[in-house]
Fold:
Amino acid sequence: MIVVENSTEEQESNIQETRKILKRFGRQRGNLMPILQKVQGRLGYLPSEAMSEVAAFLDIPEMDVFGVVTFYNQFRLHPPGKHSIRVCLGTACHMKGGHIILDSWKRRLGINQGETTPDREFDLDTVACVGCCAMAPVTVIDEQVEARITPTKVDGILLAHKLAKERAERGD
Amino acid sequence: MKDEVTFRKIESQARAHWNELYDGAKPVIMVGTATCGRAAGALDVLQAIKDELSGQQADAYVVEVGCMGHCYAEPLVIIAKPGQPPMSYGYVTPEIARRLVIDYVIGEDPSLEFTLGALEENDLIPSIYDLPRFSYEKHIVLENCGHIDPEDIEHYIAKGGYEALNKALTMQPVEIIEEIKRSGLRGMGGAGFPAGRKWEACREARGRSKYVICNGDEGDPGAFMDRAILESDPHSVIEGMIIAAYAVGARHGYIYVRAEYPLAVHRLEIALRQARRLGLLGKGILGSSFSFDIKIFQGSGAFVCGEATALVASIEGKPGLPRHRPPRLTTSGLNSKPTLLNNVKTLAFVPRIIANGAGWFAQIGTEGSKGTAIFALAGKVVNTGLTEVPMGTTLRQVIFDVGGGIPRGKRFKAVQIGGPSGGCLPESALDVPIDFDSLRGYGAMMGSGGMVVLDEDDCMVEVARYFQEFTQRESCGKCTMCRLGTKQMLEILEDITIGQGRMEDIDTLHELALDVKAGSLCGLGRTAPNPVLTTFEYFRDEYEAHIKEKRCPALMCPELIAYYILPDKCERSCDACIGTCTVEAIYSNKKRIKVIDQEKCVKCGTCLDACPPQYNAIVKLSPPVVPEEK
Structure:
């Protein structure tokens, strides 16, 4: 498991953000997951300095925090891209070609699952099931569930993102 | 002890609000915006309707509702005009939505070409309930889904909601438990433990502080009914929890929801807030001395947390590792206090049972399993979505009559039922009436009710490998057999799907499967080998074809197939496949016949879909031996 090392400034700002969130919680162990969910919601991932901060706050060993973070699929240890791409590999999606869709994303983005593109634009991961089995295969892009994905639709989505980005840069 | 006036006031307000909506002069437009609807573009449809209404300066109520279960036809829109039967429309696009506003909301043309049917019996327009599937369906839990606004508690109350709670508060807790016991309600999460007995154990357990937890950690890939219920009718679950809490004497409750269901969490938060505002939740519920409140706890993506003891560990802030039982949760659960844990569906049944009586519920279903079963139909079936049928309905009725059979004239091969804990059942099992117990003899179980239909294009070895990969990844690692055994099984299955299997692997796999079953503590490990064992039992020939002939009979395993363009069928003037190939692996040879460069091909199948049906020139070959180019 790789834990990303941040610059001192980044670390300091992560610690400050984490402390802000901790103020809203009591010091019971039962608050560990809600705290981690809030911190990840704010920072996009769980840097090691934030985990240490949480451990000190709840007065539990850092290892217990790390144990919980690595046990649950939702928590991530590396910074996310600007857009998250979650390929559903539930049963229905898998049988309707979800693995082919995952291959398409990997090929187009040039990264594996669990990784972020070098420009930090996209990160790619899989999800066990988003409960949209009737629309299989699906991919969740940020919060939007895209239904009935095909390899050509992958290209289309990426093209639309590129065009939207170019438009934004031109200031349209 | 309880003040009857409080509830009647709430109720009459809700009914007035509802009547204003449905008996008023304005048309009502309902758009299904549960996650499945949203995936199909329901929010765009909603926006188009709002835009068109304001553009036309037309007046209508626009209401967001949940999921009716007809996911195949999403986005769904219902239009109810005064004096007309409500009409449902399927496959609505923003363009169709605009037309419906002009033609039917403003005009008088009900646009029958887009309709699925009327939602009430009438003399003019065929009703949706005339469809064959409705002669099997019986909606109890799904009754309100898709018909009320889940973000408005008054809709639920106007439909008779919280009436059961009002009644329950006049009963003694033991009377409620007796009622649940007599109804024969069993845990709908999969295990089917009698709900009344669990409640009784929790009531009798010693301890001043007790908990009620709703298990909404629906992790089975292929099951989505809990999500649909939480998104479409959250109050029915909340009401069930309050009644359960009153019966067992709990003061605190948790709803454990998967983090993958953000909309369910959002709608539950709204529902809890509204219930508190009306005094249905919190201190002194409906003027009685009973107090109870509910918190939402979001899971973090671990399948094993659907297991009761792991779920409790997760709420306590620990990794979700199951533990030995006894002690059962009802004596020592969350924070070592007596805890009642029920599935979303079980709790949603409770208000209906209390309102209509145990006798009403007990007459539905089979001898050992009362009431209805809710199935999520997905995979190779025409009408994907949710269905609720009485226990004892056969698989054939669910798949062919309700689900409409297999699309594109393909042949049925198997149905995967019960998720990773269930199994793959062949055609010969289709006539078994389904209930909690009947499928065990076939090596499967009803489980939470996920049903993935597989046709002749689906490879059974690959299905087994898929589930093994899932359980292996989700194994919490506590028990050795589950942690390492599933890994070994997965490696063997992987070898078979890439054509490197050996005949003796089948025996090793079988032996391992039995060991994992015997050597695991919780349901995850004990049922993890089921998909392998059932595919062995019913589809052994496919395993043998992979091993002996290096051939995938369903033409699915990528390592064992090749795409090939038949030269005598390929049309020279067409290059549809070249344009769509995502990796530029197709080229045109000297005779302008298209050829696939096997080195470049990634076997995504896009060309197969692109080849016009009149040529039908692209085939999959297995074993992957492509004829030499002449």
User: Anything to note?
Assistant: The two ends of chain B are 92 Å apart (CA to CA). The first helix of chain B runs from residue 4 to 22. Chain B is about 40% helix and 15% strand. Chain B touches chain A through 65 residues (CB under 8 Å).
